[in-house]
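Lecture notes, unit on protein representations.

Consider one protein chain, 241 amino acids long.
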Amino acid sequence: MYLETKARSIVKALSWRLLATATTALIVFLFFGKLSLAIAVGGVESFSKIFLYFVHERLWNRIRWGRKETTPFVIWLTGLPLSGKTTIGDLVYNKLKNMGLKVERLDSKQVRSLFPKAGFTRDERLRHLGRVAYLASILEKNGISVVASFISPYEEARRFARQICKNYVEVYVKASIDTCKTRDYKGLYRKAERGEIPNFTGISDPYEEPKNAEIVVDTEVLTPEECCKVIVNYIKHNFIK
């Protein structure tokens, strides 16, 4: 895939303008047979259209019709391991991106690779999620929306994210432990039950179910695509005017 550079776009625009002017001048010359008249008309046509285009653009900048104002937001997906957070988060991110929104994706696997020594005890998780919430808030303040998917098992961590992010949308990706186990292609739940993985959410570490999430999507009932639609519709209704 090739990307159009700004320099290439400028040269293309100038070449098109020159071609259009030359065509106008040629038509005048063919009809009247006067080179000086053709050059004069071509020059007038070129400058007049540049001026008219400038005025046209300035007028449209004053017209609000057809514009949609977008408020940056932070979508925070929380749920048990293998509840479907990453899959749904990816779908939501791609949908918002295709809508032309400025949006970034934060996922637990990607972010933890940046902080390999971040542990899984309660205190370590709280510190780690605090860093993530702060990063999301900085992006939001700079006009960039965020789709974040983290187990974030503690109400304390989610409450901090809500406080630090201006437009925080908590999405509880709901699924029972039994359902999550059926999706466990890596056998993580079995390892946790055998004590091979300490501090595993839902087994040896608690998951504090959200009580005030803006959105609840039950992945035992809805497909990932349906969950994505619910979330995007909420965003459209509340943040795109």
